[in-house]
Amino acid sequence: MSLLSTRGLSRSFAGLRAVHEVDFDLPKGEVRALIGPNGAGKTTFVSLLCGRILPTSGQVFFDGRDISALPAHRRIGLGMAYTFQITSVFSRLSAYENVALAARRRVHGRAEVDRVVMRALEQAGLHDRPDQPAGDLSYGHQRLLEIAMGLAQAPRLLILDEPTQGLSDGEVAAFKALIRGLKDSTTILLIEHNMSVVMETADRVTVLNFGEILAEGTPAEIHANAQVQAAYLGTG
Amino acid sequence: MSDSTKTVILHGGLLALLFLLQFLLPAYHHGNLARIMVLATFAMGYNVMFGYTGLLSLGHALFFAAGMYGMGLAMQYAGAGPVLAMSAGLVASIVVALVVGLLALRTAGVGFMIVTLMFAQAGYLIILYYGAWTRGDEGLVMPQALRMLGAIDFSQPGPRYFAALGLFATGFLLTLWMMRSPFGKVLIAIRENEERARMLGYDVFRYKLAAVVISGTLCGLAGAAYGLLFGYVGATFASVQYSIFPLLWVLLGGAGTVIGPLIGTLFMFYLIDLSSAVTSAYMLVAGVVLVLLTLFAPQGLAGELRARVWRGLP
């Protein structure tokens, strides 16, 4: 059954249809990549899912429940986690405290929080620098810190908005391994431009173009899809 | 030495120093320091909102005055003793903070500054409007017979210093404990990045409301204590000047540090005190020093300490 679905989900900005009548279903346990040309509405779409912005019309269902009217923090409380496209850490707090803020929504007590935080930092490859202020970390490490904050929430649905942007090749490889390792416990929705990440981690791919779903299928099917190629090359 | 040990030594040492100073200081400075500790409590309350939560209010005179008048009116017209009158001040400031918080937090940024400023001006005008009760600018002198707790006379320097220190220590330890607790970390997270805090699942509005109520209550307690210890309650304390003072003290001392408000209040108090002994243009001296500090120590004095000496300063 679907963990997350939308029906007729739309959002316009001053007449511009950023997301238009999207019906979307994400089964439990799947890793789904969301791709599309710049301006296709990917970030707007996931922002509608987690409640950062409100839809013009349409509904969002999470685990069979209509959450369209819930404010963002309540949706997060139901088990969603969202990592930002533009790095958005608490720059004057330590890396540890950034992750602890994420963990404390779920676990309590100093020892338990400590365990969850150190594990998330380790999974993201940041365990050697917990005390460093987040603002002093390199850009790539701030991206990894975002991911660690998502992991610490142990979400049922993890939404990652361009997580590998700005990562080194080695870090991208580690990220792929991390996603494969999470497959069993978490449903993942991944906005991604790096095609090697999409091909190697996603079970299925949804292509968004001009705010509408253009195609959906396995990575191989999408790779071979003429419409998708046209959208990316701009000749469609 | 761990951060916790350093924190205990620094903050505990400061309280011990303030305790010892009452036996060492000459009468004039003894009286000044009692006043400074009460005003620094006002600044610490302001710091909870501005320094830690990132909410810039221009209307904190309202909370100071709410506590002061809650205490003063109870004493003047109901014949309440210190405990009852202080409780009235406490309740008045909690109620005012809750109402202002619920309404003003619907705005953000510049809107929030304007709304808090307008609330404070409304409070000031209400005090003037009910001049028959409040005596307006002229103010009320608290009857000395009521400023007694048993045999303790709060109009005497000794008990006054002790009460001021007690108030200061309460606010100081409360802030220190709060900012090291998970709750305080959420307030700091809201200051750093409100949207991110929301997307971690925190109900940002409720945390901000809690910050306003804690801040307003601490400022109200300072106002009530000021009226009790120095025996005077007047509309001046509700004027816009008293909304700007805590902002200046906190900026000078270091926003978002526990010791900053005391340092800023102490510094500003003596800057004006010493320069006014030398020249009648003492506000010019104060202004120049403020400009210099803003240019060369924009984080405030304790902020510079944090940046240069100890990054873990809470």
What does this entry look like structurally?
Chain B: GO terms for molecular function: branched-chain amino acid transmembrane transporter activity. The complex is a heterodimer of chains A (236) and B (314). Helices cover 37% and strands 27% of the residues of chain A. With 236 residues, chain A is of the alpha/beta class. Chain A starts with a strand and ends with a helix. With 314 residues, chain B is mainly α. Chain B has one domain. In chain B, helix 3 packs parallel to helix 5. The model of chain B has no long low-confidence stretch (mean pLDDT 94). Classes of the chains: A alpha/beta (236), B mainly alpha (314). The A-B interface holds A 50, 52, 72-73, 76-77, 82, 84, 88-93, 97, 100-102, 104-105, 133, 149, 153 and B 182, 185-186, 188-189, 192-193, 195-204, 311.
